[in-house]
């Protein structure tokens, strides 16, 4: 991380730095998931939402709409057992269908602002307990222009995300996966343009240890990294995990294989940090006794012990329950330290043994204690120190499920035959396009909610069992997912909806058809959009009439000639301010589309001019003035922003559209005004 920045809370990792720039996009992965928490807390911080979802109502929705509309990609990949939740469909939710016996357990966040790319790897799921209650750990790597950072680690994580997609989701013609892949390509190209050096100062080495189906297990990777970076062999290990293999696993391979990483000819020691549970008679260590019994007992110079991590934290004479959920492995000798943090529990599935099919992501720090004592002490502070468990105690004897569910109910996994579900629009009407890979389960039904059936096996058979079918969406709110059940499904599965093209999504109701006067206020104001809208919505709610609306009241005898001059002057100020906005660098095609066609873009201004104009001459004149102002655009791009050629091409197409509209209506305009407007378009289209 940057030396001048600190991240004291996990949510701080989602906040842009002082000079991070505009948000471009983000990708995250999680096992369990809370969609509302992600949208309001994580995504809200990433795009710098300033309004409050609990108190600001429509103002929050307006700000969210504005800021999400400019992102190239916002996506979360969640294990299929927990992939659900209502959301703003401007961000994608994808279920990871892992091979049998595995889960998507990696916790990754890849965040990109115009001047910073941030990689976050942690032990925490994207839930309120994960980010605010549990004892968790996370690591951050920042990439900025001209700085030193481990580019190879970023490359590995990007390829790891691609592998998750290719193994767990059908990628053919999936718009969300296309957005993710384009976003990853953008990140890698940007890091190359920034000339980031693939090294880190102060003799610290950062890398990743990733577990995936068919890949190397954790112990093979630990040995390889130690041998490549350190001298000697590690003589001590501290292993912290909330979950270990079940007591009935007599082999307990992780507790055997860890000894193969340590010193084989001299003193060696392992400390396991574990959870505990107190009963009336004793204290139960929530770990199997094989952690101790699997040590090489024929050697007298080794030791293995278990210590307890407290889940009751005392602060200011108050005890708070802080469930222990972090996972770390610390290896060291007299000179070197290898420190692993991330998602891997010390179980066979978490470490990639026995052909298990988990996806796990871990961040690795390697350094010399002598040459880098400051960072060594920093890492050491994050290492939990368990306490000795006084007798009487016993090891876990009964089978306990090893999961990170955090109290959430599992979903019924959605069968792969329900391939993808797209939201589309045709002639202003929305519909759902369903893609199937027959055969489908008997008696299946698709629900809007538990009481409204949208589609069923009966309809599918009546339509001759198509591989793609569509249904009209006749509800007021656009959906983010539907429920699916079938014979003997024992519950509902969740089928997230994806948007084929984000540009088809309508603006929130309060941003539709804004009057020209409020557009003038928004664009010429130094205040952000949501603050101007807050003031306007309050006045609108109180029934206060805008000054402009009073002046053009047809029931009042008012000389509007002076007002028209004043209004033309104000529109001129609007156009100048708007051009200056357009001249700022834009980093995604989505952000360019919002500037041109969004709720406060060129199209909105033109529509407001046509809607509010008092005569054909006024409308045509103001549109020609808008075109002239657009033609004066002097776009200030950077080496990572949208190229100026694309910006000017879009602007020219808009000017030609307005010229075409003028030609159709110029018969109704007096000759003097007609000549002026004709000349204006000739100048604008030079």
Q: Report the radius of gyration as a whole number of Å.
A: 30 Å
- Kindly state the number of beta strands: 26
Number of continuous helical runs: 19
Major beta-sheet overview: 7 strands, mixed
The percent of residues in helical segments reads 25-40%
Mean pLDDT: 88
Q: Might you state the CATH topology name of the largest domain?
A: Endonuclease, Chain A
Strand order of the largest sheet: 7-17-16-15-8-9-12
Per CATH, the class of the largest domain reads Alpha Beta
Structural class: alpha+beta
At CATH's second level, what is the architecture of the largest domain?
2-Layer Sandwich
Separation of termini? 50 Å
Question: What's the domain count?
Answer: 4
Can you tell me the overall shape? elongated
**Unreliable runs:** 547-563
Q: How much of the sequence is in beta strands?
A: 15-25%
What does this structure look like?
This protein is α+β, with helices and mostly antiparallel strands. The chain has four domains: 10-193, Endonuclease, Chain A, CATH 3.30.870; 208-395, Endonuclease, Chain A, CATH 3.30.870; 418-504, Immunoglobulin-like (Sandwich), CATH 2.60.40; 513-684, no CATH class. The chain is 33% helix and 22% strand. The protein contains 19 helices and 26 strands. The strands form six sheets. It has a seven-stranded mixed sheet with strand order 7-17-16-15-8-9-12, with helices on both faces. Strand 15 and strand 16 (336-342) form a beta hairpin. The two termini are 50 Å apart.
Fold blueprint:
Elements lengths: L22 E8 L4 H12 L11 H11 L4 E7 L12 E5 L11 E6 L2 E7 L5 H6 L4 E6 L7 H18 L6 H19 L10 E8 L6 H12 L6 E5 L12 H5 L10 E7 L1 E3 L4 E3 L4 H4 L8 E7 L3 E4 L2 E4 L5 E6 L3 E7 L17 E9 L4 H9 L11 E3 L22 E9 L2 E8 L8 E5 L2 E5 H6 L5 E5 L8 E5 L7 E4 L1 E2 L16 H9 L4 H14 L4 H5 L9 H22 L6 H9 L4 H11 L3 H16 L12 H22 L5 H14 L2
Parallel strand pairs: 1-2, 2-3, 8-9, 9-12, 11-18, 19-26
Antiparallel strand pairs: 1-4, 4-5, 5-6, 7-17, 8-15, 10-11, 13-14, 15-16, 16-17, 19-20, 20-23, 21-22, 21-24, 24-25
Helix pairs in contact: 2-12, 4-5, 11-12, 11-14, 14-17, 16-17, 17-18, 17-19, 18-19
């Amino acid at each position: 991380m940057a030396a001048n920045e600190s991240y004291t809370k996990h949510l701080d990792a989602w906040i842009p730095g002082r000079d991070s720039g505009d948000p471009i996009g983000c990708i995250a992965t999680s096992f369990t998931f809370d969609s509302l928490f992600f949208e309001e807390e994580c995504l809200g911080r990433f795009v710098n939402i300033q309004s409050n979802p609990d108190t600001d109502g429509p103002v929050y929705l307006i700000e969210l709409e504005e800021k999400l509309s400019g992102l190239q990609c916002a996506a979360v990949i969640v294990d299929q057992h927990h992939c659900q939740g209502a959301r703003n469909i401007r961000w994608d939710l994808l279920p990871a269908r892992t091979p049998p016996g595995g889960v998507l357990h990696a916790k990754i966040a890849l965040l990109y602002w115009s001047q910073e790319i941030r990689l976050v790897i942690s032990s925490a799921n994207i839930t309120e307990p994960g980010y605010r209650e549990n004892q968790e750990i996370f690591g951050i790597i920042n990439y900025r222009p001209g700085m030193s950072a481990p580019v190879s680690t970023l490359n590995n994580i990007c390829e790891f995300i691609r592998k998750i997609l290719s193994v767990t989701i059908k990628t053919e013609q999936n718009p969300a996966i296309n957005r993710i892949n384009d976003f990853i390509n953008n990140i890698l190209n940007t890091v190359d343009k920034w000339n980031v050096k693939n090294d880190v100062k102060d003799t610290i080495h950062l890398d990743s240890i990733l577990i995936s189906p068919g890949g190397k297990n954790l112990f093979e990777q630990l040995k390889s990294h130690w041998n490549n970076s350190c001298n000697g062999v590690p003589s001590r290990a501290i292993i912290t995990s909330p979950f270990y293999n079940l007591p009935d696993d007599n082999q307990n391979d992780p507790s055997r294989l860890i000894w193969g990483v340590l010193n084989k000819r001299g003193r060696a020691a392992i400390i396991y940090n574990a959870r505990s549970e107190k009963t009336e008679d004793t204290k139960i260590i929530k770990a199997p006794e094989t952690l101790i019994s699997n040590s090489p007992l024929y050697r007298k110079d080794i030791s293995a012990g278990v210590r307890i991590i407290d889940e009751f934290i005392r602060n200011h004479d108050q005890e708070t329950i802080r469930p222990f959920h972090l996972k770390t492995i610390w290896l060291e000798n007299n000179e070197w330290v290898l420190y692993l943090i991330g998602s891997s529990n010390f179980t066979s599935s978490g470490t990639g043994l026995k052909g298990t099919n988990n996806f796990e992501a871990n961040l690795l720090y390697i350094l010399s204690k002598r040459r880098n004592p400051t960072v060594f002490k920093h890492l050491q502070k994050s290492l939990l120190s368990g306490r000795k468990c006084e007798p009487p105690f016993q090891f876990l004897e009964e089978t306990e499920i090893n999961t990170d569910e955090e109290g959430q109910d599992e979903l019924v996994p959605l069968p792969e035959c329900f391939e993808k579900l797209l939201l589309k629009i045709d002639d202003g009407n929305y519909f759902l396009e369903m893609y199937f890979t027959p055969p489908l389960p008997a008696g299946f039904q698709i629900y809007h909610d538990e009481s409204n059936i949208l589609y069923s096996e009966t309809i599918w058979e009546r339509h001759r069992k198509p591989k793609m079918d569509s249904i009209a969406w006749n509800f007021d709110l656009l959906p983010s997912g539907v429920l699916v059940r079938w014979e003997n499904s024992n519950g509902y599965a969740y089928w997230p909806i994806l948007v084929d093209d984000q540009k088809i999504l309508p603006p929130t109701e309060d941003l539709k058809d804004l009057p020209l006067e409020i557009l003038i206020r928004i664009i010429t104001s130094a205040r952000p959009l949501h603050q101007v809208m807050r003031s306007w919505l309050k006045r609108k709610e109180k029934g206060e009439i805008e000054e402009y609306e009073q002046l053009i009241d047809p029931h009042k005898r008012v000389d509007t000639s002076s007002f028209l001059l004043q209004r033309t002057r104000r529109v001129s100020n609007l156009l100048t301010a708007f051009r200056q906005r357009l001249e700022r660098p834009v980093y995604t095609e989505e952000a360019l589309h919002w500037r041109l066609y969004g709720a406060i873009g060129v199209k909105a201004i033109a529509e407001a001019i046509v809607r509010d104009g008092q005569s054909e001459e006024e409308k045509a004149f103001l549109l020609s003035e808008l075109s002239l102002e657009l033609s004066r655009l002097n776009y200030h791009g950077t080496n990572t922003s949208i190229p100026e050629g694309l910006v000017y091409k879009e602007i020219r197409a808009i000017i030609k559209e307005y010229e075409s509209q003028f030609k159709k209506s110029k018969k109704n305009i007096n000759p003097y005004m007609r000549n002026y407007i004709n000349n204006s378009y000739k100048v604008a289209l030079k």
